[in-house]
């Protein structure tokens, strides 16, 4: 039964509730919006479009499970609902349920080939599956359909890194930042590309901007500290002192945000090694290891500090772990 076939008074109430619900949405009153939308379906019948709106409201309330449930209800009513296919696939990707996400995405592409969101979802799925060349192709297709989506340019840049195409990665990062220069994760990821190329001075301005726009996340802070630490030996004495103080301030801020940040403890330990304060270095480097730093060098420096303190047996054991991690990082084991 079409909505237009209902009595006039039901139709008017339906339209009133729809307008009230969308107004609540616009004002971020998502619980009130959900109530309006549910009342709409009580006076008529379940509607896939209304379920889509309810799902969106649940998402704004960070209730992902309920959002997914409502999107499934939408698809039960209309298996070709492109919006529901796209949004449910997107949430499944975030949950790591890639097989179902891909099945829904391919259904969406079959229904609407020129939908950029479906191609973006497919690119993300392929990236997470480790099929990086396919990820590049899908994300490039999405950009061809929606060239101003900065997040797609960001993800394409990451995919290009995985296929060892740094020129195109730089190009996509720059385009993403041109479209949105206030995404801390984007700025940090671009800085990481300079890091792996040992181009630390070029990474610095992007990390400074990331710290500015993303002040509550630890990664931009400790990455900027790391970036500056890599440049200390390349600077004059006066500037070096200022730079070291900035490194200290950034590491303190990182640990203020997360005292269990292994990367910050590793960098503190590295700084203490520079000062030849072996006892403090050993303590901080051990904290870096305990709190999960990803840097194999932390084990090498910890071994050095233990050796300087005369703890040779421990130093040898830690150094063996360093060599094992270095071999693993290089794909030898």
Q: Can you describe this structure in just a few lines?
A:
The chain is mainly alpha-helical and 333 residues long. 78% of the residues lie in helices and 0% in strands.
Word description of this protein:
By secondary structure, the chain is mainly α. Among the domains are: 77 residues, Tetratricopeptide repeat domain (Serine Threonine Protein Phosphatase 5, Tetratricopeptide repeat, Alpha Horseshoe); 72 residues, Tetratricopeptide repeat domain (Serine Threonine Protein Phosphatase 5, Tetratricopeptide repeat). Helices cover 78% and strands 0% of the residues. It has 18 helices and no strands. Helix 8 packs antiparallel against helix 9 and helix 16 packs antiparallel against helix 17. The chain is elongated and about 90 Å long. It starts with 7 loop residues before the first helix and ends with a helix. The mean pLDDT is 93.
Which helices and strands appear, and what pairs or packs with what?
Blueprint: H1 8-26, H2 30-43, H3 48-60, H4 64-77, H5 82-94, H6 98-111, H7 116-128, H8 132-145, H9 150-162, H10 166-179, H11 184-196, H12 200-213, H13 218-231, H14 237-257, H15 262-274, H16 278-290, H17 297-308, H18 312-329
Helix pairs in contact: 1-2, 2-3, 3-4, 4-5, 5-6, 5-7, 6-7, 7-8, 7-9, 8-9, 9-10, 10-11, 11-12, 11-13, 12-13, 13-14, 13-15, 14-15, 15-16, 15-17, 16-17, 17-18
Poorly predicted runs: none
| Global morphology | elongated
Give the class from helix and strand content and strand pairing: mainly alpha
CATH superfamily of the domain at 182-258: Tetratricopeptide repeat domain
Instruction: Work out the radius of gyration.
Output: 26 Å
Individual helix count = 18
Q: End-to-end distance, in Å?
A: 64 Å
Q: Bin the strand percentage.
A: under 5%
Q: Would you give the CATH topology of the domain at 182-258? A: Serine Threonine Protein Phosphatase 5, Tetratricopeptide repeat
CATH architecture group name of the domain at 182-258: Alpha Horseshoe
Q: In which range does the helix fraction lie?
A: over 70%
| Mean pLDDT reading | 93
Strand elements, count = 0
Main CATH class of the domain at 182-258 = Mainly Alpha
Q: What is the element string, with H for helices and E for strands? A: HHHHHHHHHHHHHHHHHH
Largest sheet: none
């Amino acid at each position: 039964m079409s909505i237009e076939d209902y009595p006039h008074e039901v139709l008017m109430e339906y339209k009133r509730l729809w307008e009230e619900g969308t107004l609540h949405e616009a004002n971020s009153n998502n619980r009130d919006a959900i109530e309006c939308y549910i009342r709409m379906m009580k006076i008529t019948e379940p509607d896939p479009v209304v379920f889509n709106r309810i799902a969106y409201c649940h998402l704004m309330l960070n209730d992902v499970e309920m959002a997914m449930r409502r999107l499934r209800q939408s698809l039960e009513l209309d298996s070709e609902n492109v919006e529901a296919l796209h949004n449910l696939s997107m949430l499944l990707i975030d949950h790591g349920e890639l097989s179902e996400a891909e099945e829904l995405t391919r259904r969406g592409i079959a229904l609407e080939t020129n939908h950029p969101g479906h191609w973006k979802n497919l690119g993300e799925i392929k990236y997470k599956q480790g099929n990086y060349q396919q990820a590049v192709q899908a994300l490039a297709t999405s950009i061809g359909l929606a060239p101003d989506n900065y997040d797609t340019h960001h993800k394409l840049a990451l995919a290009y890194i995985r296929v060892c195409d740094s020129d195109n990665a730089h190009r996509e990062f720059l385009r993403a930042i041109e479209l949105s220069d206030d995404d801390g994760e984007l700025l940090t990821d671009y800085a990481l590309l300079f890091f792996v190329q040992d181009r630390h001075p070029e990474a610095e301005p992007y990390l400074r901007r990331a710290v500015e726009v993303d002040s509550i996340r630890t990664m931009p802070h400790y990455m900027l500290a790391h970036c500056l630490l890599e440049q200390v030996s390349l600077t004059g004495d006066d500037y070096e002192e200022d730079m070291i103080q900035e490194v200290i301030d950034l590491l303190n801020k990182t640990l203020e945000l997360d005292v269990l940040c292994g990367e910050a403890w590793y960098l503190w330990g590295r700084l203490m090694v520079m000062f030849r304060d072996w006892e403090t270095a050993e303590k901080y480097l051990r904290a870096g290891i305990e709190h999960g730093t990803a840097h194999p060098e932390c084990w090498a420096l910890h071994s050095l500090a233990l050796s300087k303190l005369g703890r040779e047996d421990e130093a040898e054991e830690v150094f063996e772990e360093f060599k094992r991690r270095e071999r693993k990082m290089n794909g030898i084991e």
